[in-house]
Amino acid sequence: MEKQNQSYQAIGLLIILSLIWGTSFILMKKGLAVFLPGQVGAIRVSAAALVLLPFALTRFREIPSSGRSKLFLSGMMGIFIPAFLFATAQRHMESAITGILNSLTPIFTLLVGVLLFQQRIQLRSVIGIVIGFAGSLMLILYHAGGSIAGINLFAALIIIACMCYGFNVNFVKFKLTGISALTLTSVALMMIGPFALIYLFAFTDFLTRMEAPGAWTALGFLVLLGTMSTSVATILFNKLIKISTPLFASSSTYLIPIVAVFWGILDEEVLGIGHLAGMITIIAGVYLANRK
What we know:
By secondary structure, the protein is mainly α. Helix content is about 80%, strand content about 0%. The protein has one domain (about 1-290).
């Protein structure tokens, strides 16, 4: 019964995470209308760290000194570095390309788990991951009208970010056991937050840009991005990792394009056969990759 409840909880968390992260690209786009990519990443991390600071201050002593370096590494790999990489890439690439490349996360999770964490992977999981990626590719291409442009060297930044995610998912699962999701997330953010704040105020023209028209609105979108897509979502994601598998948790990136489609429907876009085919393929791939 307990395992069944955990399964239902994991599915619920997967759906919630997909909904939250499915809106993150829109929020980044709003922020990039005023701020530079590095500033967007720094504001995102800083906002998330400040929101969870009260929790971090009360839980920091729970972490043994030997484990604090691990939390710092998790914060850098799972939050700090990807925040800057995604913001920079989004500035120079179409969102369709970004979405496709983001779907590489489960593949890197699989590879890192095998190469660095000695995880045994069944052929069924590999096939499921490939099918899921194919479904994401199909859905995003159809949603973009069948043609995408803007593939350039900035695509490498998304790939590096996905590698970071793949490493961190396995690292949290196998090296940070016994630490609650809230403690893990809040303390990790407290440790990396000062680097983002120092960069933002000492090395950028943030205060000057705050005088530009629409700056406060853009800042509001980025604070929301940091609060929901980073602090809240990371807590939920770390919880998901602990009650499921790294592969299942990383499958949330496959569901993000589905969320984008439904945002489009709310904006009076038409749901086509390609959308349905892509969504069915994604769900089939996720199911096959994670079926017991």
